Amino acid sequence: MSRDHVQSAQRPGTGAEAPFLELLARGASADAYEQPVLLARAEGLPPERIRALEQAKRLALHVRAEMEGRRRREAELSALFETAHDLAGLRDLDAVLQAIVQRARSLLSTDVAYLTLHDESAGDTYMRVTEGSVAARFQQLRLGMGEGLGGLVAQTARPYVTPDYFEDDRFQHTRTIDTGVRDEGLVAILGVPLMIGAQVIGVLFAADRRARVFEREEIALLGSFAALAAAAIDTANLLTETRSALDRLARANEIIRDRSAVIERASDVHDRLAELVLRGGGVHDVAAAVSQVLDGTVEFTEADAAPASPLEASRAEGHAVRHGDDWIAAVTDGGELLGALVLRGHPGLDPVDQRTLERAAMVTSLLLLARRSAVEAEQRVRGELLDDLLDARDRDPRVLRERAARLHADLDATHVVLAARLEGAAADADQEAAARRRLWSAASHLAATRHGLAAARDGGTVLLLPLEAGDTATDLARRTARHLGTAVHEPVTVGASASVEDLAGHPDAVAAAYAEGQRCLDALRLLGRAGDGAAAEDFGFLGLLLAGDRDIAGYVERTIGEVVAYDERRGTDLVRTLDAYFACGMSPARTKDELHVHVNTVAQRLERVGRLLGDDWQSPARALEIQLALRLHRLSSRP
What we know:
Elements (H helix, E strand, L loop, with lengths): L2 H8 L7 H8 L9 H9 L3 H42 L4 H16 L3 E8 L4 E8 L4 H4 L2 E3 L3 H9 L3 E3 L12 H10 L3 E9 L2 E10 L7 H63 L4 H12 L2 E5 L6 H10 L3 E3 L2 E8 L2 E9 L6 H41 L5 H10 L8 E8 L6 H21 L3 E5 L2 E7 L6 H16 L3 E5 L11 H19 L6 E3 L5 H6 L5 H19 L3 H10 L4 H8 L3 H15 L6 H18 L2
Parallel strand pairs: 14-15
Antiparallel strand pairs: 1-2, 1-6, 2-3, 4-5, 5-6, 7-10, 8-9, 9-10, 11-13, 11-14, 12-13
C-alpha cells in the first residue's frame, strides 16, 4: 500500500473503503488487506480513523470471500455441467468416468482421486479409475465389505472422511489395504457412495498426501460427481442391455425368416412327393425332387452300397444320421432294410430339412413296397420256373426258354446255383417263418434285379444267378451272403455250385448244382464260417469232396471206417481221442488233459489207431485226410 493511498484516506471526504475496493478490484491476496491498517497506525492517525479502516477491512474480506465462493461454485457448476453434457452423449463409459475423476481431483485440489466399483461375483469392490496415483499396488487394490474406509462407505451407503487414515480406528484396517495406501502415501481421504436407487455400486474418493480437513461443501461436491458417475454407469448398463436386446431381436428375426423359408421348403417337398405318389413315380424321382428342395444331391442306394454303421444307426433310431459331410436316411419296411437316401455334401442340415429327408425316405419305402406288391406275382412265377428246373418237370427246352424270356432271364447264359440259409436263432416258429419270408423276399428282389430266379426250398432259399465275365462262383456267393444278410439284418450263409451252362437243354443239371451248393453251405457251417459265402473251389482239398456227385460217406468209410467200426463194436472212444489229439497239435500230454485221462491211456488208444489205420497214419498227407474225414464224419452224424 503506497503512502498516497494512506493520505487519501486522511483527506476530508475520503472514505476508509477506498483502499480495500482497489484491493478487491485487482484480486489481491487476503494478507494484502492488513497493509492499510498497519500504515495508518504507523502514521499515527486518530483512533477513530483506524477503527474505520478495521471495519472496512472486515467488510472487504467478507466481500472477497463471497466473491471467491461464487467463483468456486461457478467452476463447480461448470464442471458438473460439462460432466452432465458428457453423460448425455455417452459413447465410452471409461472416458466419462475418467473425466469425472479428473474434475473431482481438480476442483477439490487433491493429490489423488479414484473410483471403485462393486464386483457382485467376488463380493468386494475393485479399482476402476485412478487419477494422480503412482503406486501399482494401490491401483490393483480390492476392498471387501467393511474393510478400509471405502469398504465402510460401501457397507453403510454414507460418505466418510478421515483427516489421517492411519490414526483413524472407525473402520477395519487390513494389511493389504494399508500397504497399498502407504505405497501411495495417502493421509487424508474422503469417500462418497455411488448409488443407483438404494443400491451401492461403488465409491468415489478424493485423497491428499498430507493431513487435511474436508469441508461440507467439498463433501457435497464429491457427492454430486458420484451421482453423475452412478448415472453414467446406469446409462451404460441400460445401453448394453438395450443393445443386447436388439441383437437378440435381430437374431430372432433371422431365425424366424430362416424358419419360414424352411417351412416353405417342407411344404414344397410335401406337395412334390404327394404328386409323385399319385402319378406312380419311382424312388429316383423322389431323390430328384428332394435334391431340388434341399439344394443338394440326394441319391437312392441299395443297402449294401451305403456305409454300414450309419445306415444301421438310422434304421435303429428312425432318423437321418450324419456321416462326414453326408446325411443317410434308412429306407425300411419294419425290420427289413430296403436301401437308403443319401444327401451328399450338406453337413449343416437344418432340423426341418432333416425331417424332410426322413419323410422322403418314408415315401421311398412306400413306393418300394408298392412296387414289391406289383412284382410279387412275377417273383412267384420266377420261383415256379426254378422249382420246375430243380424237379426237372418240364423237359421241353423251347418252353423253358420262353418262360425264362418273359422273366428277362437267359437260360443259355452261364449260371451258378446258390443255396442260402439264415443263421440267426428264432425265438419261436412264427418268428422263424417270418425270417424265412424276409429271406425269400430279399432273394427274389436280388434275383429280379440280376435277371435270375429264386425260390424258397428246404427251409432256406435257392437262387439261380448269371455269372458275369471275369467273376467266380466264390465271389458271387460272398456278395450274395453280404447282400442278403444286410437286407434281413441276420447272418446268411450261402453255398454256391460250380458254373452250369445250357440249363434249358439239361434241366437236371440244376438239381445237381443245387445239391453241390447245399454241401458247400453245410461245410461252411461246419468250419465255423456261418454268415459267409463260398463255392467248392474255395475249400481246397475238401472242395474235391464237395463238388459234383462225390461220395462223402464212402470217403469217410475208406479213411477212418475201421476206427468208427471199432468204436461201435467195442464202445471205445478212439474217434473222440483222434479229434482231441489233432486239436491239441498231436501232443499226447495236452490230449490227456483235454480228455481227462492218464497219458498212458492216450498212448494205448493211439497205438490201437495205428494198428487199425496203418503205421503211416501220422504222416502229413494221411493226417490231413484223417482230419477231413473226422470233420465230415461229425457233419454226417448230426441229426
